[in-house]
Amino acid sequence: MAKIDAFFNLMHKQGASDxxxxxxxxxxxxxxxxMQRVEYKVLExxxxxxxxxxxxxxxxxxxxxxxxxxxxxxxxxxxARYRANFFRQKYGVGAVFREIPSDILTIEQLGLPxxxxxxxxxxxxxxxxxxxxxxxxxxxxxSIIDYANKMRKxxxxxxxxxxxxxxxxxxxxxxxxxxxxxxxxxxAALRGALREDPDIILVGEMRDLETIQLALEAASTGxxxxxxxHTTSAPKTVDRVVDVFPANQQAQIRTTLSESLKGVVAQxxxxxxxxxxxxxxxxxxxxxxxxxxxxxxxKTHQLPSAMQTGRKFGMQTLDDAIMELLLKKWISxxxxxxxxxxxxxxxxxxxxxxxxx
Length: 357
Description:
about 350 residues; alpha/beta; Beta-Lactamase; 2 domains; seven-stranded mixed β-sheet; six-stranded antiparallel β-sheet; 15 helices; 13 strands; about 40% helix
């Protein structure tokens, strides 16, 4: 047992999402979104470095020594997997670990809308799950892939940096590939995936033009592609995909996207005030014929209206989802106001008038 495993056991026991180990500081846990110090001595650089290097693969240590940053996955059997990031900072080395639960929660357990099951059963197209860092994108995607794994008889390839949720082959055959360990980059893995007879491809992060271009190509040639982006709403997601491309290609990309995009799930995570837990508010865009036209004609500013009128298809705006959580008294008015898009809609629920910026 590695020395650092004691911190992971404490993290799991406390229900923390993240563990921060930084030279010159006590260990810190993030519990329900808030940082809490652990009653432990201040970590010295050499001591922490030895602790971290004990669990890191040799090639990852080499990358860290050369670049000052590295990501990889670490697993404690029967406890959980951890997404690790090592970095250098002013007082020495630092590391942040995100816990990835061993058990994958189902769509029902997460309280996700039924339309997520429809996304899992699509034959082709692109589905994007977006939101800020730490908003639960990976958990949502894992539940959708899990449903497809149980209900379909297909080949699923996941490309991640690092591998997070591990899916055992059930109805589907599942292959996990990790950037830096099993393949050079997202783009290289996607190029390879197209020759590996996939039905479903999960791209852990669509972070550059080449990856987005290959994901669109895969989605438009008969594959179902799931991906994540760091955008806060469905309209901004569409704009982000288009804006990655040079100006002279954007009209063509809008056309391609209008045909291949099937849905966007944009989510935000909230701390619940009724119980010790968290919940997600989801904005859902389903690409109907009308939505497809808006994307093609660069009228993304009209997408919120299309989501309002498309409720019968399972669409909803982020503000409507937040309002539902607020009226259930699951979240605080302050949190709702802070993360909403139309602030005026939520200002009436605040105890004090909103600050005037």
